[in-house]
């Protein structure tokens, strides 16, 4: 029962924050959506910020686990990048409220939320650097290249989610894949891989 109540609170928080923004979301609105008492809320969380951090950690943990499963099945850098990126875009598109919480509203949720966001981005950067180490050629400054890729992809996702277009994120896969690959593989190979990722109806 307690676990179910906690999940209801976290789900309600994501919905409330997505609808109203973090700053305009109150504990009252969360407990109303969750269908729990104020006492129950405070048995699980000390504040709205504490609940947000728990919801952020839960959502990011779930998304990360799915993405890791997707790319871990591929030894090839290109196929791993394609699978991981496809999974990330799809999972975010499947739950626009969670996407808005972890991509947009985290920026308004206080210094601890920003720190956890930085840690997530740093981990993504490290994974790209590690995955690219076996390539025949790597760019000068692979760490900065990977950091730039992560930042650029995140900004593109942020722009779509903030406009209420999370459901369209999977459409970005071919072009985002090209931009992820081109610093490591060059234009021709990245363009070829982009073409393979286009929907069959697109020439």
TrEMBL record:
Segment forming the signal sequence: none
In this entry, the residue ranges of the DNA-binding region are 26-45
InterPro entries according to UniProt? Homeodomain-like_sf, HTH-type_TetR-like_transc_reg, HTH_TetR
According to its UniProt record, what is one Pfam family this protein matches?
TetR_N
Q: Where is the HTH tetR-type domain?
A: 3-63
| PROSITE patterns assigned to the protein according to its UniProt record, in alphabetical order | HTH_TETR_2
* Assigned keywords, A-Z: DNA-binding, Transcription, Transcription regulation
Q: Does the keyword Transcription regulation apply?
A: yes
Give the lineage: Bacteria, Bacillati, Actinomycetota, Actinomycetes, Pseudonocardiales
The entry lists its GO molecular-function terms as:
DNA-binding transcription factor activity; transcription cis-regulatory region binding
Q: What is this protein's name?
A: AcrR family transcriptional regulator
